[in-house]
Design brief:
The chain has 314 residues and is an alpha/beta fold. The protein has 13 helices and 11 strands.
Length: 314
């Protein structure tokens, strides 16, 4: 079997049928693996009652452990040579599976160069140009951080011990940069087929809590450790952009929250953590400006970030 489409679902009853219907395709060369992560609404019943005729499928159900755990369960269940993680509130363009499976030959990862960003009243295309032909090279560039924007060779993931870190938020930004760097041959799918639905109540719109901050710090520390253990010395300056992305996300979210206790925590972390030096390698000019101005003010990274944040967003 060529492809396993892994769909973790949690309380997505209004959307899951649309997702599953988009995955219907008359072929024996793929399967759909749905992992119900302890949904408390009607999601599981809808999945079970979906018309699965002519669609190979598995349905796993468990107590709620989070998206990372559900994806890892799906990876264990998968029988396909390749795996594609599709979120249960998103969908794909009809009849796109055949085109995708044709490109799954002798590559570690298939990267989507574009996707549809869909909100309640708008649909736009987001894209990346000039994607290189190896995962290692892509990890030096600006890239999409969500697992649905890639199809992974299952054996490649297993041989490199690449699974999702469980029990944390933002696990995507922990997984993708490591997976890309480890990958060899990379295929590129240029046509937008994945429809990412940005809905109210998603993590990106939730209230920032201390665990969000703690998990972002864990990710920054883990990526720093990976860089020093796994990334070639000559690659570290470019690969460090993955770390600068997470530092920027952490500082931005805390600035926006207005929570003084969290801001003090992040201020201390940035002042003491050597990973902050990765900001100077960022592809984002604001991050580079942030780093060099901070050097003039005794490494007061967060204080300078707050000032730049006010200038840019207020």
């Amino acid at each position: 079997m060529k492809l396993s489409i892994i769909v973790p679902v949690y309380n997505v009853a209004p959307y899951v049928m649309r997702c599953l219907e988009s995955l219907r395709f008359p072929s024996d060369d793929y399967e759909v693996v749905v992992v119900n992560d302890g949904s408390t609404d009607d999601t599981l019943r809808q999945v079970q009652q979906f018309d699965w005729k002519d669609v190979r499928h598995q349905i796993a159900t468990q107590e709620n452990h989070g998206a990372a755990y559900a994806r890892n369960v799906g990876l264990q269940c998968a029988a396909g040579d390749y795996v594609w993680f599709v979120d249960g509130d998103d969908w794909i363009e009809i009849q796109s599976i055949e085109s995708i499976t044709k490109q799954l030959v002798d590559i570690d990862i298939l990267a989507f160069a574009s996707y549809y960003y869909v909100s309640s009243n708008n649909r736009t295309i987001r894209s990346i140009e000039n994607i290189p032909n190896t995962g290692r090279e892509l990890s030096f560039c600006d890239y999409f951080h969500g697992p649905p924007f890639y199809v992974f060779h299952r054996k490649f993931l297993m041989q490199n011990g690449l699974i999702f870190k469980e029990g944390i938020y933002y696990e995507d930004t922990h997984f993708i940069p490591r997976a890309l760097y480890k990958a060899g041959a990379l295929g590129v799918f240029n046509q937008p087929v994945y429809c990412y639905f940005h809905r109210e109540g998603s993590l990106t719109k939730s209230i920032l809590r201390e665990k969000h901050v703690d998990d972002q710090i864990v990710i920054i520390n883990d990526l720093s450790e990976f860089m020093h253990k796994e990334v070639r010395a000559e690659d570290r300056e470019l690969w460090g952009r993955s770390i600068s992305h997470n530092i920027n996300t952490l500082a931005f979210s805390v600035c926006r929250s207005g929570d003084k206790a969290l801001q003090d925590k992040v201020r201390k972390f940035l002042r003491e953590n050597p990973a902050t030096s990765m900001l100077k390698t960022s592809s984002n000019k604001w991050n580079r400006i942030w780093f060099w101005i901070s050097k003039l003010f005794a490494n007061s990274y967060f204080t300078v970030y707050q000032l730049l944040y006010k200038i840019r967003y207020r």
